[in-house]
Design brief:
The chain is of the alpha+beta class. Helix content is 36%, strand content 18%. It contains 28 helices and 34 strands. The strands form 10 sheets. Strands 10, 11, 12, 13, 14, 15 and 18 form a 7-stranded mixed sheet that branches. Strands 2-1-26-27 form a 4-stranded parallel sheet, covered by helices on one side. The protein has a 4-stranded antiparallel sheet with strand order 6-5-9-19. Helix 22 (653-669) packs across helix 25 and helix 23 packs parallel to helix 25. The longest helix has 23 residues, at 705-727. The relative contact order is 0.11. Bound molecules: ligand ANZ. InterPro entries: aa-tRNA-synth_I_CS, aa-tRNA-synth_Ia, Leu-tRNA-ligase, Leu_tRNA-synth_edit, M/V/L/I-tRNA-synth_anticd-bd, Rossmann-like_a/b/a_fold, tRNAsynth_Ia_anticodon-bd, Val/Leu/Ile-tRNA-synth_edit. A motif ('HIGH' region) lies at residues 42-52. A motif ('KMSKS' region) lies at residues 609-613.
């Protein structure tokens, strides 16, 4: 019992905490200020790993800290339990998806309990629970009503291995995010959420998050949305009624257009080539075939040699009337802008590469050698008022192969001549608008969110297909549309949803007229599930609504979100989008879901990500068995700034365990009792203790957990020194320091801290004990001892700053308890203050 034994502490305290449930957040009459601290919820694919251990250790420091600062803290956990990993694993092992998922959840939950994560276990949810996904379906129907959920046929990213559609975001370097196989294209009718309607707000509201979200994440979101401003220009096409519209960021270069390019895989290309002669058609078809096998990434690679075919058609420049040949080339993407470009080879590198490859003309219309200074450049004119323009730049892009993309002075461009780029853009847009052949425009890289999946393990889409092909929403009172059991279903991916084969499930009746109809057999992307789960935690068992708006008013948005940077784009963007939709629908009163975000780094081994195949996997359970939970948690916090990666080879959980044992032995060696007066204790140690109390809150709030741990280590050493110096464990300052250590240590090492607290004579749980306020008189850097006398007798000694004023010193002296006792009800007749050393009070009584 007198040695530190992490395993014993675990067995001793877990049942006590189970009994106390100290982290349940339920009191409706609670008047304390609130904090909602949320860790990203895990996929239940196997047991917890080192990455979880880091994330939950850090999130827990924050949650535990705010509780000890007197806040009512909500810190829930659940499982993101739908999705491919569970389904694939279940198929591979021949198990039932549900059972496999539930078993993993049970295992992770047991590990989290052992890990002493301070979650509110009464609010657990998992997204594969019909009580949860019912509300996904509700959300879908709300979006459908608003026109924010729609179907369209389009080319989609297709993973031939997983046999499923992938969102752009799930294609990494042309490969499937999950299985790493090459992604191809396939045309399918799919469900989309219209996130593009929210592009401007998603972009503009990022401003609100500056300073409280990592700037890297904000930049990634901004890039992902990718707003470009410029103009749309309409070109007539010879022999065709419809115009060819392009998006351009450089309408100022309109006089420099020498050809047009359309995306080969666009509808437009197919239409344009339809009437062409057989030779052109054949060449086009052959080209299209290769293009379909080229990944989006390759197509966007500017350094790839340019390819393309002429379509045998011409467009007309709306300002000059010039005839421009139309080509199809794969550097133009079908789903960006209008899938077509006006090619200005002199000023755009891709167009120039293409022009040089196919011998098309290059015309310079911006003199990039001319200085551009602020306003409209001075236009030199000759005696007749005709602008005098400089000679062609000596740097001819057709010769050098370098496009002139910079700013400059417009030339060879009729009414735009002499203007700077920005003025020319304004001017040309006015011209286009006045003639009805163009307009100012914005375009975005962001695409609508493809949410349908041809897989089993997800939320069924609550739509019924009537016989006449119309779509009928499932009436709200018939939700949830539950997944059928897997028995008898073939889950192996085939390209259509396995639910389509669940005859009894898929065959239903049209709720409008009772005629036979079919259920939509697709399931939702699991990012739908996680886009609003933070709201479900507020009333997880409410079966009348997705979440209670009153609870949302109280708790949301999330004050502190904690999770991996891997979710910097997708999950966060979708959650931001859905929050704005819920705001527009009147369900929440805020527009951003996560007020502050902390991204923890990764846990690596010898500089690389851990994996079984690399053979560098460190198993969490082994680490916990070997060093104890507290040592592992402390190591995570001590390793460095939370955003940095941790290399497990460079840290020392054994060292952490040693430190914890040292801390714990302090409590064992304290001999005084809780009623002892602090002020009688060793002054130097008291000062260090109070300095810790003054500095630690700021450090925790700035996420400098490693510094807090370092300070705790110093304090433990200083305390031990006082014990060893002969003062022993009875010194009041030793008790004071040890109590402070126990309370603060509970952020990182809850078992050790709880046991210390008990040894110090208190009841569990230390995790709800408030932090003591530092005593300002103990914070002065250097101090001198001031003597306070009452009628010539020394009654107190005060540690004060050498710079203390006479007034302050007098006030302190009069506030001293022993001085007040000595004064009793005597009348003070004279006070002599010789700051900083002496206060002499004379009385009459
Ligand atoms: C003429 C031009 C002249 C252009 C010039 C650029 C420079 P960002 O900034 O990424 O939005 N473009 C438009 N639609 C395209 C598509 N579907 N696929 C490939 N390229 C496309 O780029 C906008 C520019 O990319 C547009 O402005 C257009 O080329 C091209 F000196 O128009 B530009």
């Amino acid at each position: 019992d007198d040695v530190y034994d992490p395993a014993r502490l675990q067995d001793k305290w877990l049942p006590v905490w189970d009994e106390l449930q100290p982290f349940r957040t339920s009191d409706p009459g609670d008047k304390r200020p609130r904090k909602y601290v949320l860790d990203m919820f895990p996929y239940p694919s196997g047991d917890l790993h080192m990455g979880h251990a880091e994330a939950y250790a850090l999130g827990d420091v924050i949650a535990r800290y705010w509780r000890q600062q007197g806040f009512n803290v909500l810190h829930p956990i659940g499982w993101d339990s739908f999705g491919l990993p569970a389904e694939n694993a279940a198929i591979k092992r021949g198990l039932d998806t549900r059972e496999w998922t539930d078993a993993n959840i049970a295992q992770q939950r047991a590990s989290m309990r052992r890990y002493a994560a301070s979650f509110d276990w009464d609010r657990v949810l998992h997204t594969s629970d019909p009580n949860y996904y019912k509300w996904n379906q509700w959300l879908f129907l709300k979006m459908y009503e608003k026109g924010l959920a729609y179907r369209k046929a389009s080319w989609v990213n297709w993973c031939p291995f997983d046999q499923t559609v992938l969102a752009n975001e799930q294609v990494i370097d042309g490969r499937c995010e999950r299985c790493d196989n090459l992604v191809t294209k396939k045309q399918l009718t799919q469900w989309y959420f219209k996130i593009t309607d929210y592009a401007d707000r998603l972009l503009d509201d990022l401003k609100q998050l500056e300073g409280s979200w990592p700037s890297k994440v904000i930049a990634m979101q901004r890039n992902w949305i990718g707003r470009s401003t410029g103009a749309e220009v309409d070109f007539e096409v010879e022999g065709r009624d419809e115009k060819l519209t392009v998006f351009t960021t450089r309408p100022d270069t309109l006089y420099g257009v020498t050809f047009m390019v359309v995306a080969p895989d666009s509808d437009l290309a197919a239409e344009l080539v339809a009437d062409a002669d057989d030779e052109v058609k054949a060449a086009f078809e052959q080209y299209l075939d290769t293009v379909k096998r080229t990944s989006e990434i390759d197509r966007q690679d500017a350094s790839r040699p340019k390819t393309g075919v002429p379509l045998g058609r011409h467009a007309i420049n709306p300002l000059t009337g010039e005839r421009l040949p139309i080509w199809a080339a794969d550097y133009v993407l079908a789903d960006y802008g209008h899938g077509a470009v006006m090619a200005v080879p002199a000023h755009d590198q891709r167009d120039l590469d293409f022009a040089r490859r196919f011998d098309l003309p290059v015309r310079v219309v911006v003199d990039t050698t001319a200085p551009v200074t602020g306003a409209i450049p001075v236009i030199e004119t000759d005696a007749d008022g005709v602008p005098v323009l400089p000679d062609l730049p000596s740097i001819d892009p057709a010769v050098t192969g370098e496009a002139l993309s910079g700013d400059g002075r417009i030339m060879n461009s009729g009414p735009l001549d002499g203007l700077s780029k920005s003025h020319a853009i304004k001017r040309v847009i006015e011209l286009l608008e006045s003639r009805g052949v163009g307009r100012a425009a914005k375009t975005y890289r962001l695409r609508d969110w493809l949410i349908s999946r041809q897989r089993y393990w997800g939320t069924p889409i609550p739509i019924i297909h009537a016989q006449d092909g119309s779509l009928v929403p499932v009436p709200e009172d018939q939700l949830p549309v539950e997944l059928p059991p897997t028995a008898g279903l073939d889950l192996t991916p085939k390209g259509s949803s396995p639910l389509g084969a669940a005859k009894e499930w898929v065959e239903t009746t049209n709720p409008l007229d009772g005629t036979p109809a079919l259920r939509d057999a697709d399931t939702m992307d699991t990012f739908v599930d996680s886009s609003w789960y933070f709201l479900r935690f507020l009333s997880p068992n409410d079966d009348t609504q997705a979440f209670d708006p009153r609870e949302a008013d109280k708790w949301a948005p999330v004050d502190q979100y904690v999770g991996g940077v891997t979710h910097a784009i997708l999950h966060l963007l979708y959650a931001r989008f859905i929050t704005k939709v819920l705001f527009d629908l009147g369900y929440v009163s805020f527009t951003e879901p996560f007020s502050a975000l902390l991204n923890q780094g990764m846990v690596q081994m010898n500089g690389s990500a851990m994996s079984k195949s690399r053979g560098n996997l460190v198993r969490l359970s082994d680490q916990l068995d070997e060093h104890g939970v507290d040592a592992v948690r402390l190591t995570m916090a001590f390793a460095g700034p939370p955003e940095d990666d941790i290399d497990w080879a460079d840290v020392s959980p054994a060292g952490s365990a040693k430190f914890l044992a040292r801390a714990w032995r302090l409590a064992r060696d304290v001999t005084s009792d809780p009623s002892i007066e602090w002020r009688t204790g060793d002054v130097a140690l008291r000062r260090q203790t109070h300095r810790f109390l003054a500095e630690a809150p700021g450090l925790v709030e700035a996420f400098k957990f490693n510094v807090v741990v370092a300070r705790l280590m110093e304090l433990v050493n200083a305390t031990r020194k006082v014990i060893d110096s002969g003062a022993g464990g009875g010194d009041a300052a030793v008790r004071e320091a040890t109590e402070v250590i126990a309370v603060a240590l509970s952020l990182f090492a809850p078992y050790t801290a709880e046991d210390m607290w008990q040894r110090l004579g208190y009841q569990p749980t230390v995790s709800l004990v408030h932090w003591r306020k530092p005593d300002p008189t103990l914070l002065v850097e250097e101090s001198v001892t001031a003597i306070v006398q009452v009628d010539g007798k020394v009654r107190d000694r005060l540690e004060v700053s050498p710079k203390i004023s006479a007034e302050e010193l007098e006030a302190l002296a009069k506030a001293s308890a022993p001085v007040q006792r000595a004064l009793g009800d005597r009348t003070v007749v004279n006070v002599i203050v010789r700051a900083p050393r002496l206060v002499n009070i004379a009385t009459r009584g």
